[in-house]
Write a structure and sequence with these properties.
Blueprint (H helix, E strand, L loop, with lengths): L6 E6 L3 H11 L4 E6 L1 H7 L11 E5 L5 H14 L3 E5 L4 H14 L4 E6 L8 H19 L2 E5 L1 H11 L8 E4 L18 E7 L6 H9 L6 E7 L1 H11 L4 E5 L4 H9 L3 E4 L8 H8 L3 E5 L4 H4 L6 E4 L4 H13 L1 H16 L4 H11 L1
Parallel strand pairs: 1-2, 1-4, 2-3, 4-5, 5-6, 6-7, 8-9, 8-11, 9-10, 11-12, 12-13
Helix pairs in contact: 1-14, 3-4, 4-5, 7-8, 7-12, 10-13
Length: 359
């Protein structure tokens, strides 16, 4: 068995909480230098306790200027990691910095990229990805390891990005828990569901609106976030009884509290890769009512830690919402299943140990 690496640089121009929690877990076994925008990280943990580890150091970098590329290169050469691991960036400058440092590290370190979205979502993500395509292809081709969140994401990478070819560098990992509330929140007697985050077309807001139209009246549903799809449908959704709409950006502490105050998180997506808010729901012992699409099916077991419905099917979605609303025993069973998943498969210690094996 190959010994685990003892010096790791984790670079995270995005997914700051994800990268921090992974780095803390890795730091139980190795010295870890985490490079990210510290101002963003501090904002994400405003009102929450930030995890730490004795063998973890954090270096601030905004990933925006040539000077910051020079600083990152200097960190790389001074720290001399055995592994350089990037969270795949979005943005031209950040992608160029990733490609440069992956090339620089190649003679003395293993290189890795976590691909959070193997194929971009429709809308804004697709437009950004089109501009980044050459840089992204280079980084993905150059890295020694490519980590994807579950079998569905790996299949999406193989079939849609590689044209059906296998890639022996691919390793599976899980999206660990995020946004756990500081204290456990007992569920309320009346059923309550939430949909939170950035509202793009693939989030299935129109499907949810059609489903709620079929429930007379719908249970309490809270929709909070921002994005073009919510702008388009806010009036229609807000006119439904028991449905509240809050079209604004939610800081992490608010996301955590809203998820913890609900019974279930709604994920009526029409397409998906991994889902950070799904991990947040399980972190708070809350189940999901979700479309059986993308990486969601790798984590959600129908009837165990959530309810799965066909994507784009408002009738099935309405039936699932009604079933959860009418059955307190089912809700309790699903909450317990979500909590077990959070403590086992989505626990960061196990994710880090598997990743150290895969490096």
């Amino acid at each position: 068995m190959t010994p685990w690496p003892t010096r790791i640089i984790m670079v995270a121009p995005h997914y700051q909480e994800y990268a921090l929690r992974l780095s803390v877990a890795l730091a139980a076994h190795a010295k870890v230098l985490l490079v990210l925008d510290r101002t963003v990280l501090d904002a994400e943990f405003a009102g929450r306790t930030m995890p730490a580890a004795p063998k973890l150091r954090i270096r601030h970098n905004r990933f925006a200027t040539p000077g910051e590329l020079t600083r990152l290169g200097a960190d790389l050469l001074r720290f001399r990691p055995q592994v350089l691991h990037w969270q795949e960036p979005s943005g031209f400058i950040k992608a160029a910095m990733a490609d440069t440092t992956l090339t620089l590290a190649k003679p003395f370190a293993r290189t890795a990229i976590t691909i959070h979205d193997p194929v971009p979502h429709v809308g804004r993500d697709a437009r950004v990805a089109a501009r980044l395509a050459p840089l992204r292809r280079f980084g993905r081709a150059w890295a020694d390891r490519l980590f994807l969140h579950g079998a569905a994401c790996a299949a999406q990478y193989r079939d849609d990005y590689l044209g059906g070819r296998d890639d022996p560098r691919v390793r599976l990992t899980d999206h660990g828990v995020l946004l756990a509330a500081e204290a456990a929140v007992p569920p309320q007697e009346a059923f309550r569901a939430v949909l939170v985050g950035r509202m793009e077309a693939y989030k299935g807001l129109a499907v949810l609106a059609d489903a709620l139209d079929r429930l007379d009246p719908p249970p309490m549903v809270e929709i909070a976030g921002e994005g073009p799809e919510l702008d388009r449908l806010a009036h229609r959704l807000g006119a439904l009884p028991n449905v509240s709409v809050e079209p604004r950006y939610l800081p992490a502490v608010d996301l955590s509290r809203r998820i913890a105050a609900a019974d279930a998180l709604l994920l009526p997506y029409t397409e998906a890769s991994q889902s950070g808010v799904l991990a947040a729901a399980f972190a708070n012992g809350r189940f999901v009512i979700a479309s059986a699409v993308g990486g969601i099916v790798d984590v959600v077991e129908d009837g165990v830690n959530g309810l799965l419905v066909p994507p784009g099917d408002p009738v099935a979605l309405a039936d699932a919402i009604r079933g959860a609303s009418d059955d307190p025993a089912l809700r309790q069973r699903l909450r317990e299943g979500a909590q077990r998943t959070a403590e086992t498969r989505l626990g960061w210690a196990g994710i880090a140990a598997r990743m150290l094996d895969d490096y």
